[in-house]
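Lecture 7, part 2: worked example. A protein chain together with FE2/S2 (inorganic) cluster.
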Amino acid sequence: MLLSRLSRVGLGASRILSRGRCIPSCRTVSVPRSYGHYLQPQLQSHQGKLYVAFVFQRHHYFSTEGSSGESSNGSQEKQSISVTFVDKDGEEKQIKVPVGMSMLEAAHEHDIELEGACEGSLACSTCHVIVMDVDYYNKLEDPTDEENDMLDLAFGLTETSRLGCQVIASPELDGVRLAIPAATRNFAVDGFVPKPH
Ligand code: FES
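Predicted complex, written out as structure tokens:
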């Protein structure tokens, strides 16, 4: 059964190679990693050129992904962006936020007074922040329905309001400024169920 699956993989590779679309198409031919030690001997002893080409591409693909992935992951791990929080008194605090971290977590790590009553589970609006520059707001992923539902409960909702726990640091947000509203509403966590309009 394994050999027959490998044959199908070889056939797929053959079609791909004959169309001259090696690298993109190799991504669509998935070869379980556990087959790797079966493939290489087969390649060299039985199917010759076809498999050699396939393995080369596969190796090339994985090694390219591995090296760029490692370096991009490595740089991502180290990469952080600059975020400025502006509190209700207008005081600013600029912090470095690692890519991938939410603004709520970042605020808490730096003792910035941004509530987070539900700890990021989208059950409150106490982590409400206002993105001060619409250009940055437009770079964010659209809010989910759940986030919008919670934002509807937020105090002082604006056109560029978001929930801090849903804003994740990414390179394009470098330099973003977030205002913390003067007050929060904590209906959801307190058990308040709003009446339908
Ligand atoms: Fe409750 Fe963000 S902490 S929704």
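The CA atoms of residues 105 and 111 lie 10 Å apart. Residues 1-72, 191-197 have pLDDT under 50 and may be disordered. Keep this in mind for problem set question 3.
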